[in-house]
Design brief:
With 79 residues, this protein is mainly alpha-helical. It is 58% helix and 0% strand. The protein is built from 3 helices and no strands. It starts with a helix and ends with a helix. It comes from Pseudopithomyces chartarum.
């Protein structure tokens, strides 16, 4: 049993060595292959003018909105 396993282990590297992990030119030119690199996977462009203002405005709204709602709920008229 061990001899069979050892034989398979010595015969396998030739099959594994031939396998190449590469992309062909046809696959890279397909419409489903998107560009790679920094900032290519973001749904927005951080290099545009006014991005910092929009970003911090969005963050401030998300942070302060719950506090504003809580204050409004406590100050509104109680029946």
């Amino acid at each position: 049993m061990l001899a069979r396993t050892a034989f398979r282990a010595t015969a396998a590297p030739s099959a594994v060595a031939r396998r190449g992990f590469q992309s062909t030119r046809q696959q890279l030119s397909s419409p489903y292959h998107y560009p790679e690199g920094p900032r290519s996977n973001l749904p927005f462009d951080p290099l545009k003018k006014g991005f910092a203002f929009k970003y911090w405005g969005f963050m401030a709204t998300g942070f302060f909105l719950p506090f504003g709602v809580a204050v409004w709920q406590t100050k509104k008229n109680k029946p």
